[in-house]
User: Fold these one by one.
Assistant:
Number 1:
Amino acid sequence: MKTKIKELRARYDMTQEDLAKKVGVRRETILFLEKGKYNPSLRLAHQVANALKTTIDDLFIFDD
Amino acid sequence: MKTKNNKEGSDKIRLIAIIIVSLFVIVTGTLFSLKSFIGGNVAGGAGGIFIVVTILVFAISVFIRGNSDIKKGFPLQDERSKRVMEKATSRAFYISLYMLLAVGFLSEDLIKFRDVSQATSVTVGLMSILFAVCWVYYNRKGDLE
């Protein structure tokens, strides 16, 4: 799984800590999400997408 | 949904609970070690001290990290840390079953335990170390599938 979290974070000038606080998770969770090493729940994916003003489809790219 | 203040409050209570449980384990482990040393069982006493020191280091690091996270506005637990805990607990449990079998087998020939309480204490100590190792492994691994 690949994500555009880092790219969108940079666009909105947000640090990992800022995003983590906005979504209500620990910083490591954002770190692993960015690396594509953690599959989030649908709720968390929705919250991250909302925080970065995008959709889940745009944010997460799955290798088929 | 929980408000931020409610969540912060429950995180503080959880942190205090972790510290209280750790203190109980440390006090019990220290008493066990003292009893072993007084009874002339140096290996048992040393093992107890090792477990007490390990738990003490773990408790101090959890407290410092948890306290600073709460102050910065991060939750003590989120969905990933809960999954790490679940995964570490289940793996430690499976491995513990084999370990219990091994301790039972070895206690007949190779290891001479003083009594059942000593064998139980050693097993519980090994189980707690095993859980800590599993937790560190899954916390660093990232991919929890």
Number 2:
Amino acid sequence: MTVSTTAQIKQSLVAALRGNTPLKNAVSGFYEGFAAPNKPYPFVVYNMVYAPYDFAWGSVILRTAFDVYVFGENSVDANNVDALILQTLHNADISVSGQSTLICRRVGDLSSQDIDEEGKKVYQIGGTYEIWTDQPDA
Amino acid sequence: MAAGKQNPIEFSQFKLELRRRIEEAITKTAEHAAFLAREEAPVRKIFKGSRRSLRQLSSVELKAEQTSRRNLFGDKAQGPIFIERERQRFFGGQPRVLPSNPNLRGFGRRSQLNSLSPQLPGVVGGNPRQTTIIGGQGFLSPSAEGHLNSKGRAEVRSGRANFTLKSGKQIVGGTLRNSITVGPLESHGSKIKQTVFTSVHYAKYVEFGTRHAAGQPFLRPALAKVREEYRSRIIQAVQQTRKHAAAGGKAVEIAGRLRAPAAAPTRNDIPVSMEFIESLRPKGGGMS
């Protein structure tokens, strides 16, 4: 059996985010890594942090972590969107193809400010989510 | 279980030994995490093609460089005007416009010197992966320039990418990587903590990303990698203490009781042999 990778986990994470209609309507889009300069606020950016493989007793556990941030001109809007993300992902039963999800949990917060290319102050609010999945060893 | 009459101090000695081993495990794990974080930390891409390393000329090499220049051009070889005059005298052609920016004068002079004499020493080092640049801010040898991309040239000329290692060696790039350090061991009651950190101000932007750039995490992946290692080091520390206690005589059950107490043992229930306590004492002195 082939060991499936973090690509499927990422796919499920994005599918879960897009599946939340209020969240989808509240943001301009979901982007990996960073968004292009012309994208309107608020938007969601996700980035993989780590994904070590833990081989044990005939199975592989992937402990994947993703940073999921909201960038917004308004801190209240950004916080509201972040709350929607938390509601969608924290302790969510997301389905990953080829893997059984053990946990999906928020494990850290981040709040920061930045200045965009137009000189506007933007708020970066979000957190780190850990997703543990299990699958039979190859 | 033959608990017998026990001295509370004996148990505290056991705890001391266990704590010492756990602290050692934490320190080793933190050092390994710092090593992994240094490997993960991104270094600014300033080279064209494959990765190379640049270094500043040492004072001895700079002196040799100055001597060679003096031998070639005499004591007057000081300014760009003289160099330009010499260039015209050797090669002819129209006089070139000299750099007006004082920051570029050194570079201009250096380029012209190289065009006059390609045999000048210290331009490219012996190591094929190591290119030498001329010491001092704003100076960059043309040979080194060939290996750098436009960002790298700007970084080296401005001196922003210059970094001094703890050993005193001057290198270009790697400020973030070399700033990752292990903090001192802190203990608050039963909690023991050791921090792996970086004091570089832009580290958080690299770790978490910004509006303009994706994050390139280096600290958290290192932490994730040592998570299992940390667990096994702690288990090893307990096992070693248990083994040590067992070697002392009757204290085989100490670690077992610590791991899975059958019925809430009191301090006096745990047997610790005097041989074990004696074995903890440093030779030729008392316990510190």
